[in-house]
């Protein structure tokens, strides 16, 4: 799916967040200590090399809903924006915390004058946020924020599985048609 909303290109693809060669910034589904982990964090730290964990040390620990920005080192991007997304059923209110991650990530991107940013489906893996509950929050947050963006001109959602991509696209196509 590719659309232009308020002058910002929004696309969804199936892929690996560590291989977004045409994007200025990628978002990490971080842990509080800003260390490597599984899933998204594992892929990004592996590709970036040990400097990424070193760069995160001065911010750690971060709290849920918070985002910080570091260089991307050996990744094919300029920046990694690390969000501590909520653990479903533990960090409350989870919807608000998930929303805050997207708002803060976009804010960090704007501050660095980033033009393109790629998000994985944060919180919906190890942290257990049901994808179908997360999708409307992500869409509404992005629609709310998009009008205020000055530098970001391209937002990408990178879904790991075909079924996640399908779920995103069917909800978004329907919701955007109804606008
Ligand atoms: N590229 C894009 N998406 C991916 C990739 C990848 N390389 N690998 C997994 N996904 P998760 P969370 C998908 O668990 O739920 C970490 O270990 C995955 O299928 O990475 O926010 C951290 O250290 C799922 O749909 O993030 C934290 O402790 C989505 O990305 C914790 O897990 C998010 O999965 C964060 O958990």
TrEMBL record:
Q: Which InterPro entries does the protein's record reference?
A: Macro_dom, Macro_dom-like
> Which intervals hold domain Macro?
1-176
**Which Pfam families does its entry note?**
Macro (PF01661)
Where does the source fall among the domains of life?
Bacteria
Q: What is this protein called?
A: O-acetyl-ADP-ribose deacetylase (Regulator of RNase III), contains Macro domain
